[in-house]
Amino acid sequence: MQNFGMSSKLNNVCYDIRGPVLKHAKRMEEEGQKILKLNIGNPAPFGFDAPDEILVDVIRNLPTSQGYCDSKGIYSARKAVVQHYQKCGLLDIDVEDVFIGNGVSELIVMAMQALLNHKDEILVPSPDYPLWTAAVSLSGGTAVHYTCDEQSDWYPDLNDIKKKIGPHTRGIVLINPNNPTGAVYSREFLLEVVEIARQHNLIIFADEIYDKILYDGAKHTSIAPLAPDVFCITFNGLSKSYRVCGFRAGWMVLSGATHKAKGYIEGLEMLSSMRLCANVPMQHAIQTALGGYQSINELILPGGRLLEQRDKAYDLLTQIPGISCVKPKGALYLFPKLDQKKFKIVDDQRFAMDFLLQEKVLVVHGTGFNWKKPDHFRIVTLPRVDDLEQAMTRLERFLHTYRQ
Ligand code: PLP
């Protein structure tokens, strides 16, 4: 009898956000148990509706979206992306520099697959959004993690970045605003990263999917316009700011020293042709979203639901003895720290599983974000205040069982 094993390509690939703890939670739900889900940044199930104009546009365009489109995406969407980035100061781009994908996720994998060879290294933040590390590993490269420093509002440690650059380093990933930490980087800091990339001939991979989800007056600066002489790929999409994760609509924009990357760009074109094209109806939402009313602002300004929930989650969490947390300036998450002198946690995935089993609350353990120590976990700030209160009460109770 022939057994079918997993491809060895996947040996080092890890994506714990949808790992064994989530599988167990699903089983519990199937048995009829109610789980408080603080695990995934998916706004719609929490009652964050998409702007009506986006839905109307998709519906209206459905009858004419039946065929494949250009493998880089429909013209109107790519043109809208170009115009959007030109307004942000990225002047030297045109529609040929834009690739539309089935979400940013698909494009991240494509960007790594088209570039990496065995021994190639990509600098990836720790903690990270783990798809980046997984995509590097799947593509045969090595993710070299640079530290983001909790003591410095989770800013990346520039010295650590410099130390980790070697002859095989091809690029650096920057997630800004950051998932899971909520850090938003200043222009000065970004200029330093650009300088490092310039000196060491690195590609900058800028994941800016949370660029419009900002709190307390934080301002987002896109890195690509600061780096006209460095090859940059900027990733963004509709999932978060426009609350349509399920539409799977994202894009990447190639800018700067594209002349240095001709072969790589051919590779990207080949991979996008191989999957024919991204979901066509949903691409019609891109022009409407970028050019339309930015309803996300209502959610993040004073009185807005996302801001209120971030504040509530932060206040409740930091009142629990033994928990500290840097207040996020953007995105949809908190990444709290558990005091290791107070709690005995050796395996944080076990910790998340125990919390699920005992209290029916689902969180993601910190090592799932390529954080080295088992002393963090991530929650989303999407649930309503009542649910956040419930979850934090249960967390405090649960933590008693983990006290040293
Ligand atoms: N990048 C970051 C930092 C994310 O947090 C996510 C989703 O949570 C993605 C990319 C993937 O987004 P998409 O829905 O466009 O695939």
TrEMBL record:
Recorded GO MF terms: L-alanine:2-oxoglutarate aminotransferase activity; pyridoxal phosphate binding
Keyword Transferase: yes
Assembly and oligomerization: Homodimer.
This enzyme's EC code(s): 2.6.1.2
Entry keyword set: Aminotransferase, Pyridoxal phosphate, Transferase
Pfam families, A to Z: Aminotran_1_2 (PF00155)
Protein role: Involved in the biosynthesis of alanine. Catalyzes the transamination of pyruvate by glutamate, leading to the formation of L-alanine and 2-oxoglutarate. Is also able to catalyze the reverse reaction.
Cofactor(s) it depends on: pyridoxal 5'-phosphate
Transferase is among the record's keywords: yes
Aminotransferase class I/classII large domain residues: 35-393
Domain of life, per lineage: Bacteria
SUPFAM superfamilies, alphabetized: PLP-dependent transferases
Pathway in which this enzyme or protein is active: Amino-acid biosynthesis; L-alanine biosynthesis
EC supergroup of this enzyme: transferase
Catalytic activity: L-alanine + 2-oxoglutarate = pyruvate + L-glutamate
Protein name: Glutamate-pyruvate aminotransferase AlaA
Family: Belongs to the class-I pyridoxal-phosphate-dependent aminotransferase family.
